[in-house]
Amino acid sequence: LYNIQITNNTSIGLYLSRSDPILENIQITNNVHQTRGGGMFLFLSNPTLKNVLVGGNTALNGGGIYMQESDPIIQNAIISNNTASEKGGGIFLTQSNPILNNVIITGNSADKGGGIHSDNSNPVIQNTSLADNNSVSNYSGGIYCVGGSYINLINSVLWNNSPTQIFIQGVYAQNNEAISYSDIQDGEDGIVISGTGILDWQEGNINEGPMFLRSGDHPYQINDYSPCIDAGTPDTTGLNFPEFDIAGNPRFVNNRIDMGAYEWNMFVGVEEPDPDETETAKVSIYPNPLNDHLFIDFELENETNITLEICNVTGKRMKALTEKSYTRGAQHCEVKTEDLPPGIYFLRLQAGNEVVTKKVVKL
User: Fold this and answer.
1) Which CATH number is 358's domain given?
2) For 50-100, how does the pLDDT look when each residue is reduced to its tens digit (9 = 90+)?
3) How many alpha carbons lie under 13 Å from residue 97 in its C-beta half-sphere?
4) What is the model's pTM?
5) Is 209 within a domain?
6) Taking a C-beta distance cutoff of 8 angstroms, is the pair 218, 244 a contact?
7) Domain that holds residue 177
């Protein structure tokens, strides 16, 4: 199945039983089911999913995808903003062994396992970014591991999942999670282990902000200063990585794979100007590097509403400079920056629908 949209159904968006299709360029959005699998329900099925969006779906369990005795391959997929009132906002697994590669799992919510709920399953999770997922009842916003599961997590990022990144439950059955070459917020302290749960904390893991772009078509792409660059496993033998990441960038740059669903490249976020278009605002800044003051000159072709701010490398606003209408012509601003610590920042000027970004360095 290729190039299909499945949306706004009051039942399961797509149900597969005892079938192994290839699904490519599929969008499954805003479907609602009362029990299992708002977006997809896989039963005894082993499909290959490529370039799939599963978003905004709702169910009791498995808001995005519900898998039962299924072993799919999921590659270059986005699973976002799905909701389960009980388990597995993004994905619910029971007796299933999926392989996830280049997958974004973000903004999902459930009572247990906002991103993934794994019950008696053995998923392999490679180069996946799980971020901003939520557990309503304190049972891991990222991954919840229960029922005798064994999870292998490699080259992945778990960040800003609430209240914890991973919960390994071990009261009723022993559960295991092996983690290597991954960026886990709070490190081992971001993982809750209950009863006989076992964490196999292997080499190559870090606890550093991944520096997502937080804007544009790929907000979970990493920026030029991310610690995830070239931090993935040096030995990719047998891991069967796709040739390209979720944004179409080559999966290997500098002969080393990155952590997360995106591979850094120096042209991320840079667009060539259209020679036929006239810029609304022409911007110059000085000095750069700066100390205590920054001067900003910009010229407007027309009277325009201007928003001017300074953000850090994670996209967080550090200073709101102005937000008002400016007349046509040359404009000048002086900004005091003594309260900013040394580091790299971005001046962001929005003039109408146009956004201009300039990198600045504070000494």
Assistant:
1) 2.60.40.3080
2) 999 999 999 999 999 999 999 999 999 999 999 999 999 999 999 999 999
3) 3
4) 0.74
5) no
6) no
7) 2-201
